[in-house]
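Practice problem: predict the structure.
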Amino acid sequence: MTNQQIHFSNNSIDYHGGDNISITKGVVSRVEVTKYAHSNVKLMTTQTDAAINSGNSGGPSLMHSKVMLLDKFET
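Answer:
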């Protein structure tokens, strides 16, 4: 599978502020294996245009009502 073949919708879920659920829609446009910064472990990473920030970082990203990945905010 090439990155040109990857283009699917996802929904990022969070509890920003702890009380209410927020859903941010986006499209995953890139999937690759990346070496984790603090070890030699390689992990699958994705790139999405969904707005990921400190409020929803760590929350699940869903596709067809199934957890696809966990969102991580990087600066």
